[in-house]
Automatic annotation (TrEMBL):
Gene3D superfamilies: Periplasmic binding protein-like II
Segments for region (Disordered): 28-55
Lineage, highest ranks first: Bacteria, Bacillati, Bacillota, Bacilli, Bacillales
Biased composition (Low complexity): 29-55
Residues of the signal peptide: 1-19
Superkingdom in the source lineage: Bacteria
Protein name: Extracellular solute-binding protein
Length: 484
């Protein structure tokens, strides 16, 4: 698996912008969407027959597209999307944009596609590229991508995850490397030493023990224990221990997480449970764990950093100096701080007509790389400041950080004191590793069952649990795969 720590370190130079932002510079219309050239002067019939037909003017094509719309709790993101729809319709008044309330779910996508109920443009995450492409549930947008004049400025770290066999099946929005967000205030209030950023599993354990107060319902750390998030959280420790999810060799995919590294990572989870540093009610999904963190009921949470930061600052009433973003801890001193590299993407529905697919693509990249995108972002920052709230960018954005547009974004951020800035030291330590190529969500689900066994029972045979999960994933999923 490729490592990107060097690339990720470069990201420090530029704080990032929300995924809804960005676009073209021609009043938000890409060259391909510009009106057709004026009719040429009259010519002979022979000359006319040799002329290529005029390009279709997509500002005149009547169509309806349904788009991914953020959930009700994402008020600021909804405001950005509403602004984007308004600006899009100024250029494409012929297109009706319908807001879809469906959020991607790997257990529902097949049903949605079979019933032709999936949106024209829907959200998904980094693990799903190959799955959606192979199932025929993501449109091949290679031709649209190749015609996009800003394609070379898109961030390859994200774009590569939806480049399947040289074809493009998704549009990157934003990305992350999983880290650990620490409530520094909880530590200092209890007189607990703040660990170094270059920390280890032992540092996590010692810090969690020192700050936990089970009698008051306060945990030291809240690893997720419900839903696929539980397997996702644990995978960071598998990676830090030097393990892999799967291997691909000789056309065969083989489960590899039931290794010595996997056992070591699971033993650490077992020790967290034995030390009573995790919540008594450990069955927490992403929202539960991040919510507990924002409410001061746990001192540490494992996630893409922007989510816990946003909730802690804007819902929990915490200040930037109260929070520290850490990389994932190294298994031992001198080890790498490897975290899962993931991201958010938009996918075009292959059941849509060619015109609808084209317009969905135009909508997806509408604000990308545009001055209007910068204006929209700045307006969002200003609105948050007026409400005494913070703007928290994601760790990785859709554009290259060393691009001209990246510099423009950085200049906007530097104007405001309510934009959260990631530290130099953090960015230098981050080591992102992509999720598995095949059936990642199925693997996460299998590991969630193992983690629930560990958290709910005593004297669990950890190796037997890992072996059983690997056997299930192998026989049910990996054995069905033929790699060409």
């Amino acid at each position: 698996m490729r490592k990107i720590s060097t690339i990720i370190a470069c990201l420090l130079l530029f704080s990032l912008v929300l995924a809804a932002c960005g676009g073209n510079n021609n009043n938000n219309a890409s060259p391909s969407a510009s009106p057709s050239a004026s009719t040429p002067a009259e010519s002979s019939p022979a000359a006319e027959s040799s002329e290529a037909p005029p390009a279709e003017d997509f500002t005149q094509v009547k169509a309806t597209i349904s788009i991914y719309y953020p959930t009700p709790d994402q008020v600021e993101k909804r405001a950005l999307e509403d602004d984007k729809i308004k600006r899009f319709n100024e250029v494409y008044p012929n297109v009706e944009v319908v807001k879809s309330d469906w959020q991607y779910n790997p257990n529902e996508i097949g049903i949605k596609m079979g019933a032709n109920e999936a949106p024209t443009l829907f959200n998904t995450y980094a693990t799903e590229g190959k799955f959606l492409a192979e199932k025929g549930w993501a449109a091949d947008i290679t031709e649209l991508f190749n015609a996009y004049d800003k394609k070379d400025q898109l961030n390859p770290i994200l774009l590569d995850q939806f480049n399947i066999g040289g074809k493009i099946f998704g549009i990157p929005q934003q990305g992350y490397v999983v880290g650990t967000v620490v409530n520094k205030k909880m530590l200092t209030d209890k007189g607990v030493a703040v660990p170094p950023l270059d920390w280890t599993w032992d540092d996590v354990m010692n810090t969690a023990k020192a700050v936990a107060d089970p009698g008051k319902g306060i945990s030291g750390i809240a690893p997720m224990g419900k839903g696929n998030e539980a397997g996702w959280n644990w995978t960071n420790f598998l990676f830090e221990a030097g393990g892999e999810i799967q291997t691909v060799e000789g056309g065969k995919v083989t489960a590899a997480f039931n290794s010595e590294a996997g056992l070591k990572a699971l033993e650490f989870y077992s020790k967290l449970k034995e030390a009573s540093v995790i919540p008594a009610d450990w069955a927490l999904g992403w929202g539960d764990a991040v919510g507990a963190f924002a409410q001061g009921r746990t001192a540490m949470v494992i996630a893409g950093p922007d989510g816990p930061l946003d909730q802690g600052l804007n819902q929990g009433g915490l200040k930037p100096e109260d929070l520290i973003v850490y990389p994932m801890p190294a298994a031992a001193a001198g080890g790498k701080h490897t975290g899962v590299l993931g991201g958010d993407f938009l996918v075009v529905n292959p059941n849509a007509t060619p015109d609808e697919q084209r317009l969905a693509f135009e909508y997806a990249v509408f604000h990308y790389f545009s001055d209007k995108g910068l204006e929209s972002t700045e307006a969002n920052i200003q609105a948050r400041k007026a409400e005494n709230k913070f703007f928290v960018p994601p760790v990785i954005q859709y554009f290259k950080q060393d691009s001209e547009y990246g510099a423009k974004v950085k200049a906007v951020y530097d104007k405001y004191d309510n934009v959260y800035q990631y530290s130099n030291e953090l960015m230098a330590l981050l080591d992102g590793k992509p999720e598995a190529q095949f059936n990642t969500q199925d693997y996460y689900a299998a590991m969630t069952n193992v983690i629930q066994e560990v958290f709910s029972k005593k004297d669990v045979d950890l190796k037997a649990q890992l072996d059983a999960a690997a056997k299930t994933v192998q026989e049910k999923f990996y054995d069905q795969i033929k790699v060409e």
